[in-house]
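LAB NOTEBOOK - FOLDING QUEUE
OPERATOR: T.R.
BATCH SIZE: 2
PURPOSE: Compare the predicted structure-token outputs for two unrelated chains run back to back under identical settings.
PRIORITY: normal
REVIEWER: second-year student, initials M.K.

ITEM 1
FIELD SEQUENCE / FIELD STRUCTURE:
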Amino acid sequence: MLSPQNRQMLKNLAEYGPLVVFFILYYTNKDLFWATGGLLIATVISVLLTYYIERRLPFLPIFTAFAVGIFGGLTLILQDDLFIKIRPTVVNIIFGLVLLIGLVKNKLFLKILLSKALQISDYAWRIMTIRWAIFFFILALLNEIVWRTQDEEFWVNYKVFGVMLLNFFFLAFHIPFIQRNQIKETTLPDKENQEKP
């Protein structure tokens, strides 16, 4: 049985490990193909680790592994770095579209994914869904601008550090909104304190 600390450490390793491997291999060899190969292997290990921790395979790690497998595989097979560079664009567009389509169909996918961590009103979930969808589209656009206008090393740095910072600031921006819309748990009074008829 994993302790909470070990569990969290393994979850962080599964989440960030592939990106760290990608970054290290790129800067060790200055070769995007080597880095992509490492990313593929690290992603498979990440999925196995996630299954070990959760005893199930959540949607996001599976989708990420699928996208890395498709675009990373095409990059290595065809020896064309275009595919690994457009992967963030395609993935972010898909995430944005899924959120908006779910919203139209009254499916709050963010709530389904994050309801254990956040207790906020459905109104707040809808606002968050719209904002996250827009954010994903912005990330897709930024990725296209960066890889098309900058050199490979700049794109790698943006992918590893730039996107991480953007995510951090986007999440930090939402803290006051989440606090304002948090649902406070109501507790029923004890039987002893209830008035007798």
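ITEM 2
FIELD SEQUENCE / FIELD STRUCTURE:
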Amino acid sequence: MPDAVAARAAAEEESAFSHPPVDPDATAAYGDHPDQVIDFYAPRTPEPAAPGALAPLVVVLHGGAWRRPYDRRHMTPFADYLARRGFAVANVEYRRGGEESGESDPVAGRWPETFDDVAAALDALPALVRETLPQADPRRMVITGHSAGGHLALWVAARHLLPADAPWYTARPAPLRGVVALAPIADFTVAGKLDVCGGAVRQLLGGDEEFADRQAYADPALLLPTGIATTLVQGRTDIDVPQVVAESYADAAAKAGEVAGLTLLEDVGHFPLIDPAADACAVVAEEIAQLAW
């Protein structure tokens, strides 16, 4: 990798992580584990909303290669950014790999707990929103996620396509206006060949032996067509999750008879998509707005 490319990626990451965390307006649990919580951000705009008006709900799933050190806190500036643009926001936490304290190189994800949690959070969300964030309209819900969270956003929108013996299977599509997946790990075959995030996709499914058996239950590229409006936003200079991963998902969708939008951003890497200081973040917000409003 050229030094200039690596330096640029490092600067983008530093900028995205430079913003102080933003505390939520409320937090609610969807289970008994400490990681089974959702932070809620009320819409805050310069002009007060009309009496009785409800804001679209954006569900945020954070990335971090499904690994323990990366939690929802790094997405709170992004959640606040969306709230300041008039959205109600639900920032979801879930169990990740590396539960053992002091583990220096945690594995990616926990099978099946990572999937258990995301499914349970989305199932619980409408009732939690009514109780905790009455300004939000769960009937106008868009789910977005970054990197590994982008995978989970695509996956949770495809639960009705899971094998019937999957514990997360639903008989009907999720009640979503759409999905906006940001630099998503969207195709496990391609991501595995590229060793994305240090072999994270194989670790997520339990290792090489389990990969083939579990891929059909976890890989969004195999769960198509969803029938739900889907847009992928991808930086062309992303060296963490290269654009070929998103392109492969879009190709798979097309072969399944579905159009998945693919917005490619020039001179943008992995982290500007969630960096409120970056122009790319405004593009993301507009993609969400097009589905939500």
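REVIEWER COMMENT (ITEM 2): The chain has a mean pLDDT of 95.
FOLLOW-UP: none requested
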